[in-house]
Amino acid sequence: MKDQTKRTLCNALIAAGLIITGFGIGWTSHSPEPISDPVSVQDTLLIEEVELTLDDTIAMIVPEKLQDICKAIIWVESRGSAKAYRKSGDCVGLLQITPIYVKECNRVQSDVTYTLEDRWDPVKSLEMFVIYQNKHNPDHDLHEAIRLHNPTAGPDYKEKVLQKFNTIY
């Protein structure tokens, strides 16, 4: 499978509450019909159903150095609710992502296009957070991560995020 196809499949499994427990070589088919082209199928995903927490999802998507700051930003922005909405600025979801944020992620990414509806999806919101941070904060600096995520916020916002970060870290 191509990397993009694997990523899309993995994200769909994560969103459905399934977790990937391993990769293997070859392909296992549960259909009675043999695979006609075994060369085109190269990986086997072993999956099991589990209940994923937000922390689990963050651990699978967000680089380790950004995980605690991401959790702190989520807490300050939405208290962990993917249904959070702020009319001023049209901010949506866990990370209160704006339309401008989505547009920038689409500009940076060439192989994935995010929609405004994707802001409601925790997995896609976290992916956009990572894309944005990787592009504009490649060293994953804590203070830069806060500034980039909400550049119009005042010093109170930064202080709230840092206070929450210090309770996590």
Layout of strands and helices, then pairs:
Layout (H helix, E strand, L loop, with lengths): L2 H13 L2 E8 L17 E7 L4 H8 L2 H15 L6 E2 L4 E2 L6 H10 L13 H15 L5 H8 L5 H14 L1
Antiparallel strand pairs: 1-2, 3-4
Helix pairs in contact: 2-5, 3-7, 4-5
Brief description of this entry?
The protein has 169 residues and is mainly alpha-helical. It has helices spanning 3-15, 54-61, 64-78, 99-108, 122-136, 142-149, 155-168; strands spanning 18-25, 43-49, 85-86, 91-92.
Task: Give an overview of the whole structure.
With 169 residues, this protein is mainly α. It folds into two domains: 3-49, no CATH class; 54-168, Lysozyme (Orthogonal Bundle). Helices cover 49% and strands 11% of the residues. The chain has a two-stranded antiparallel ribbon with strand order 1-2. A two-stranded antiparallel ribbon has the order 3-4. A hairpin with a 4-residue loop joins strand 3 (85-86) and strand 4 (91-92). Helix 2 runs parallel beside helix 5 (122-136) and helix 3 (64-78) crosses helix 7. The radius of gyration is 18 Å and the shape is globular. The termini are far apart.
